[in-house]
Every structure is written in C-alpha cells, then in structure tokens.
Design brief:
68 residues; mainly alpha; 2 helices; 12% strand; extended
Length: 68
C-alpha cells in the first residue's frame, strides 16, 4: 500500500511540475471534442466528458500494467 502512495505522489509531483514550468504541454486537456462548455451572460458550465474518459482509460491501462 505504501508503494502505491509513493508512486501516486511521484506522478502528481511530475504533473504539478509540468503545469508549473511547461503549461503548454497540457493545454489541450479540457478542449477535446465531446467536452461540453456552456456559457451565458451570468453562468458558465463545463462538463469534461471526453477528457474524463481519456483519464479513465489511461489510469486503467497503467494500473493493469502495474498489477502484472
């Protein structure tokens, strides 16, 4: 269990460093076809359907590869 926490912490650290020093690497995330963005004068709603499906697929593949 501790090994998983260390690996997830390292992954989050790498993502944080990438967002801090190279934000253009992940600028496409949230702008994929299928992500719903509704803007009116007083409200803004964002539903990242495609982005979350992509995150789910990547995490599923990673966890399946690490469990073998």
């Amino acid at each position: 269990m501790a090994k998983w926490f260390i690996m997830m912490g390292a992954i989050l650290l790498l993502i944080g460093v990438a967002l801090q020093f190279a934000p253009w690497l992940l600028s496409w995330f949230g702008k994929l076809p299928g992500d719903i963005r509704i803007r009116t004068d007083s409200t803004s709603v964002f539903i990242p359907i495609t982005s979350m499906i992509l995150v789910s697929l990547v995490l599923t593949l990673l966890l399946n590869l690490l469990n073998r």
